[in-house]
Every structure is written in C-alpha cells, then in structure tokens.
Amino acid sequence: MGEIDVCDIAFNYPSKPDVQVLNNVNINIENCSTVALVGHSGCGKSSIIALIERFYDPVGGKVLFNKQDIQEIDTKWYH
Prior knowledge:
globular
C-alpha cells in the first residue's frame, strides 16, 4: 500500500496522438483510502487508472507512488 499522486498529468493515447485525453489532472490518493472516479463516458477515468497501473506513460506530468515517480520504479515490483 502507499500514497498515489497524479500530478499535472497530460495524456494522449499513442494510437491517437492528436486527441488530448487528459490535461493538467491532479489527484491525491492517501494510503489505505478508497477512491471512486466518477464522470461521464469518455472523461478519462479508465485512462487515469491505466496511467497509475503504468500501462501507459503520461505525455506531461508525473504519477508518484510514495513520492517516487513510477517511471523510476521496477515494474515487476510495482505490478
């Protein structure tokens, strides 16, 4: 378990680089908390989860796990 911070995330799917999915999104999920992402279809809920799970990397901003950029964490350990 740990804290997750989504910091100023910008994201486009590689298959559609001209379509911005997320723009400057910020979320803080504290350790041992339960969070729900709620919104209309296509607003980026699944994209945020995919970034947290490191299935994709953001175009801008960072996803942090316990204050460390997840791009610097071993993916075998993280998953």
